[in-house]
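Board notes (copied after class):
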Amino acid sequence: MAPDEVSGESLTLDELVDRARALAIPGERHILGIVGAPGAGKSTVAGQIVAALGPESAVLVAMDGFHLANVMLESLGRRDRKGAHDTFDDAGYANLLERLHRSAAARAVPGNSEIVYAPEFRREIEEPIGSAIPVTAHTPLVVTEGNYLLLDRDAWPRARACIDEVWFLAPGNEIRQQRLVRRHEAYGKSPDDARAWALGTDQRNAELIESTAAAADLVVQVT
């Protein structure tokens, strides 16, 4: 194992689904966070958990919906390191999780039909789309995934305060980097550019993210 690699408990996806199901308690609201470095498999695992639990029990709200728009990143001089912690609207993300946390408390109000609309990131255009994901007050489990759920600066701690459990995915660096290169190629980068981004910008972000793993409730390698 490389010195900077994070090791974790080996669990199957079915075991993770069972653990998530325990949080999807009708009449309550819990938020499950899934964190990890770029290419760790966060969106895949989160999506499979939500699909297994079904739309009446769970909904996926990803941190990536709070990417700053490319035009804003260019104006800030940060476009070439998109994905770094300061290329997100961290306060907006924290505000959303706080609202999702509060909205379930209104479920006891007769006739309550509040819907919170969350943004979604579209990889095909590399931009967030606002108000794309509806979350009703009666959905018991919100699954959120992203890179910086455990970061202890800026507005990220406010977001963490709303999350009941955070799981850190640690697949191993070689697997993670291979996934990243394939992803970048799939979305239009040349093989050389894909590898340069995965081992450059992505890797710098990964090192920061992996330094937060000790704060997770569960560190896991999905088998």
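Comment from the instructor: The mean pLDDT is 90. The chain has one domain: 9-222.
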